[in-house]
Amino acid sequence: MTHLVSSISTAAEALVLAANVESFATCALRPSVVIGPGEYQFSPSLYACISKSETPFIIGDGLSMLDVTSGFPAQYLTTVARDADDK
User: Fold this and answer.
1) Within 13 Å and on the Cβ side, how many CA atoms surround 1?
2) Residue of 39, 27, 44, 28 whose CA lies nearest to 70
3) Which class for 34: exposed (0-12), middle (13-18), buried (19 or more C-beta within 10 A)?
4) 17, 35: one domain
5) What pTM value is reported for the model?
6) In this structure, are 36 and 73 located in the same domain?
7) CB 33 within 8 A of CB 65
8) Residues 7, 42 share a domain
């Protein structure tokens, strides 16, 4: 399922960027995992896996950190991008 979502997101981003013309500016924002108040899927699942030592996969050197984005900055950046052409 993850690959399907990623493929669809990539295809949609390409369509949006291809539609960019001088009279109609487009941009693609790609935040990482978005979390915030009311988020009930990602964080509880992550904590449950960690508490059960169910995170055996190490990618690369094992020093990577998980990148998440708070919902508020993601919303703010979307608004800034939308309003950028008005200036």
Assistant:
1) 0
2) 39
3) middle
4) no
5) 0.48
6) yes
7) no
8) no
What are residue 70's phi and psi, to 5 degrees?
-70, 145
pLDDT of 2 above 70: no
Taking a C-beta distance cutoff of 8 angstroms, is the pair 46, 54 a contact?
Answer: no
Residues 55 and 16 in one domain: no
DSSP 8-20: HHHHHHHHHHHT-
What does the block give as tokens for 66? 């998980």
Exposed/middle/buried for residue 23 (C-beta within 10 Å: 0-12, 13-18, 19+): exposed
Encode pLDDT of 20-76 as tens digits: 998 888 888 877 777 878 878 887 888 888 788 777 666 677 776 777 777 777 778
